[in-house]
Amino acid sequence: MKFLVDLPLGGLAKWLRFCGFDAATRRLAPDPRTLPPPAPDTYILTRQEAFRPRRRPDLLVLTAPTPEAQLQEVLRRLRIPRSRLDLLSRCSRCNEPLTPVPREQALGRVPEHIFHYHEQFYECPRCRRLFWPGSHLNGITRSLGEGLPKPLKLPHHRKKP
Fold first, then answer.
1. Residues 6+ apart with CB under 8 A from 116
2. Are the beta carbons of 31 and 24 closer than 8 angstroms?
3. CA-CA 20 to 30 A from 45: which of 13, 58, 114, 141?
4. CB atoms near residue 47 (< 10 Å)
C-alpha cells in the first residue's frame, strides 16, 4: 500500500513510514488536472476541504487534527489490520526501506553506549542514517496501540536484545 500525502500533513507521512508504508509527500492542489491518475493500492491523503467534491475512491479528505489521530483515521477508514504494519522498516525522513547493517559497520557511527547495548542496526540507503531498536520504539508502539483494539506485537527483527 502506498500513500501520496499532502505536504502540510508531513507529520502523518512520518507516522505512515513508522508503520512501514511508502508515504511520499507533495503539495497538492484541488485542480483535477494536477492530481495523479488513480493507481492500484495507492491513496491520496489531504485535509483540504476543496478536495471533497472530487469523489475519487483513492482520495481521503481527513478530519483529524494531529498526525497521530490522522494515522488512526487512515487505519480505520481503510480497514488496515495490524498484520499489515511493518514497524520501523522505513526511513522516517527519506521513505526508503531500511537495510540491515552488520554490527561491526555501526562501530564509530553510533554513540559507544548504543553500540555496546544493541545488536541490530539498520541503514537508510539514501541518507545513510543508522537506526536501532531504541527507547523511541516503545513510545511509537504505545501511540500506535492506543488506536488499535489489541496490543501490537513487534516484528521479530526489531526486538530489543
1. none
2. no
3. 141
4. 16
Q: How far is CA 20 from CA 63, 130, 150, in A?
A: 23, 16, 19
In a domain, 93, yes or no: no
Residue where one domain finishes, among candidates 49, 84, 119? 84
Q: Does residue 92 lie within any of the structural domains? A: no
Specify the 3-state DSSP secondary structure of 136: helix
Question: Does this model's pTM top 0.90?
Answer: no
Residues 8/47, Cβ–Cβ less than 8 Å: yes
Confidence at residue 21, expressed as pLDDT on a 0 to 100 scale: 97
Q: Which tens digit of pLDDT belongs to each residue from 85-101?
A: 898 899 999 999 999 99
C-alpha cell, 101: 547493517
Nearest of 116, 114, 120, 75 to residue 98 by alpha carbon:
120
Sheet with strand 121-123: strands edge to edge: 99-101, 121-123, 130-131
User: Residue 105 in contact with residue 118, Cβ under 8 Å?
Assistant: no
Query: How many CA atoms lie less than 13 Å away from 99 in the CB half-sphere?
Result: 9
